[in-house]
Design a protein that fits this description.
By secondary structure, the protein is of the alpha+beta class. The protein has 2 domains: 5-24 and 186-383, 2,3-Dihydroxybiphenyl 1,2-Dioxygenase, domain 1; 33-176, 2,3-Dihydroxybiphenyl 1,2-Dioxygenase, domain 1 (Roll), CATH 3.10.180.10. The chain has helices at 5-12, 44-55, 95-103, 117-125, 202-213, 260-268, 283-292, 308-312, 319-325, 369-383; strands spanning 15-17, 33-40, 58-63, 72-79, 82-89, 106-113, 131-140, 143-151, 157-162, 175-176, 187-196, 216-221, 232-239, 246-253, 272-280, 328-332, 335-341, 352-359. β13 and β14 form a beta hairpin. The chain starts with a helix and ends with a helix.
Length: 386
């Protein structure tokens, strides 16, 4: 294997990595997993077709007029352990309609599965989290689902979901409509969810995740690590005690031109979720299938792959396959990862997705930041936003 220790040491000069915390009895807000992500969209029915055909999700539950929901239509989709919920309003004066008018299609709710939704709410609000929805429970023939919700950056909510006494397809009020994974492209787990906040607000939200939720900082990237000739950003990654739940938080940095973070803030009209990273065990197959189904990814120049083995060492995948598909590779002290980013999945240059395959690596592709930023800047330039 080619020695990559020198490059790893160089990256440490502009990043700070914390050891993985161990979960113990002092953890006041234990989290089991990402439960689901709910997006408010202009047309949930059409969005569900897009995510099914392109991303490989299968609709598993539905609520709407036919189920007694008079103001909201929602489609719950599943692939592996990933749940997406797509919701639209049935009237112009509904909160969802106002959210879509302000932000475009975007993430409203990040839901976390917890052992006790009421206890999680009490733990978070007693430490300064702002309440959005008090603890409540809903029932149907499949049991009882308990939830509570607090506010995060911008108009984004964090929901606590307790599923121990519920066995339905998704939630009370939904009817089962399909079988999960029938259309899968190989995505199986949410790896991390990235939020963009205003200049100067990153540390405020880092402190929020630490104080109110018990998260610790995994890594810090400064504007030297994530920059090009024209733009830069700063980022801190917060994680829960298990290391399974990770929230990178970005803010723009001063640069010659408008960064991708500022472009997001301008078009989303405030802070919000920038992208959702989903894990796969075979990124080549996953990306090839998604491309065949019409999903567009950022373009990576061929020159990136010329010395890839020298930069990342030995990997299982063929470099020719990575180059063909535009997949990036990076290595840290724990292993290597492969990643790729879609273009925005709506007309506004806001929300997009990452596909990632990990082979021990805990990082986020630090060695790819420059190539990724340059690709993003080319897209910004095409949109007239750089």
């Amino acid at each position: 294997m080619i020695d990559t220790s020198a490059r790893c040491e160089a990256m440490k000069e502009s990043t700070t990595v914390a050891p993985l915390a161990s979960r113990d009895e002092t953890d006041f807000l234990p989290i089991k997993a990402f439960d689901h992500v709910e997006l408010y969209v202009g047309n949930a029915k059409q969005a569900a077709v897009f995510y099914a055909n392109g991303f490989g999700f299968t609709p598993v539950a539905y609520r709407g007029l036919e189920t007694g929901s008079r103001d909201i239509a929602s489609y719950a989709l599943k692939q592996g352990n990933i749940r997406l919920v797509l919701s639209s309003a049935l009237s112009a004066d509904h909160e969802i309609s106002r959210h879509v008018a302000e932000h475009g299609d975007g993430v409203k709710v990040i839901a976390l599965e917890v052992p006790d939704a009421a206890a999680a709410f009490e733990a978070a609000t007693s430490r300064g989290a702002r309440a959005a929805l008090e603890p409540s429970e809903t029932r149907d023939d499949f049991g009882v689902l308990r939830t509570s919700t607090v506010k995060a950056y911008g108009d984004t909510w964090l929901e606590f979901v307790e599923r121990g006494d519920y066995a339905g397809a998704f939630a009370p009020g939904y009817r089962r409509v399909g079988r999960a994974n029938g259309n899968s492209v190989g995505l199986h787990t949410v790896d991390h969810i990235v939020g963009n906040v205003e200049l100067g607000a990153m540390n405020e939200w880092v402190e929020f995740f630490g104080r109110a939720l018990g998260f610790t900082q995994l890594v810090h990237f400064d504007d030297k690590a994530i920059s090009t000739e024209y733009s830069a950003l700063m980022s801190k990654v917060m994680q829960d005690g298990s290391g399974k739940i990770k929230f990178p938080i970005n803010e723009p940095a001063e640069g010659k031109k408008r960064s991708q973070i500022q472009e997001f803030l301008d078009f989303y009209r405030g802070p919000g979720v920038q992208h959702i990273a989903c894990q796969t065990d075979d990124i080549v197959r996953t990306v090839r299938t998604m491309r065949e189904r019409g999903i567009e990814f950022l373009h990576i120049p061929g020159s990136y792959y010329e010395n890839l083995p020298d930069r990342v060492g030995e990997i299982e995948q063929r470099v020719d396959d990575l180059a063909e598909l535009g997949i990036l590779a990076d290595r840290d002290e724990d292993g290597y990862l492969l990643q790729i980013f879609t273009k925005p999945v709506q007309d506004r240059p806001t929300v997009f997705y990452e596909v990632i395959e990990r082979h021990g690596a805990r990082g986020f592709g630090e060695g790819n930041f420059k190539a990724l930023f340059e690709s993003l800047e080319k897209e910004q330039q095409r949109r007239g936003n750089l």
